[in-house]
Amino acid sequence: MRFDDLLLPEGECPAGVCKKKQEWLFMYFRGIAVERIAVMCRADLRRVRYTIRVAEKRDPTLFGRRLVLHDQPADKPTLKPVITLKKLWWEHSTRLLGFY
């Protein structure tokens, strides 16, 4: 088997189902809907839903922690100082002068 045989054309996914249940739970905990998880992992929706329900029965706080994680307000973006082209040109010229 050559290495080229393992490469897939661009935009094509490998065949098969992602059966890693921990990955499903991680995605669910991060706020992805069960339906979306099933589509992304090419898995049966009923199996994904069942896996998450079993995990919630084992740990009843899972759903609440998921909501608490996503109900947090988003951090305010910090404003970066605006650098004008003139200032940038002077900085570059100063470095160039120091180099010479």
Overview of this protein structure:
- By secondary structure, this protein is an all-alpha fold.
- It is 54% helix and 0% strand.
- It contains 5 helices and no strands.
- The protein has helices spanning 21-29, 34-40, 45-58, 62-70, 85-99.
- The longest helix is centred in the C-terminal third of the chain and has 15 residues, at 85-99.
- It is elongated, with a radius of gyration of 25 Å.
- It starts with 20 loop residues before the first helix and ends with a helix.
- 5% of the residues are buried.
- The mean pLDDT is 78.
How do the strands and helices of this protein lay out in sequence?
Elements: H1 21-29, H2 34-40, H3 45-58, H4 62-70, H5 85-99
What keywords describe this structure?
100 residues; mainly alpha; 5 helices
Order of helices and strands: HHHHH
Query: Terminal Cα separation, in Å?
Result: 57 Å
Overall shape:
elongated
Return residue spans where pLDDT drops below 50 for at least 5 consecutive residues.
none
Number of strands: 0
State the share of residues found in helices, binned by percent: 40-55%
Radius of gyration: 25 Å
Provide the residue-averaged pLDDT: 78
| Residues in β-strands, percent | under 5%
Largest sheet entry: none
How many helix segments?
A: 5
Secondary-structure class: mainly alpha
Compact overview of the structure:
This protein is mostly helical.
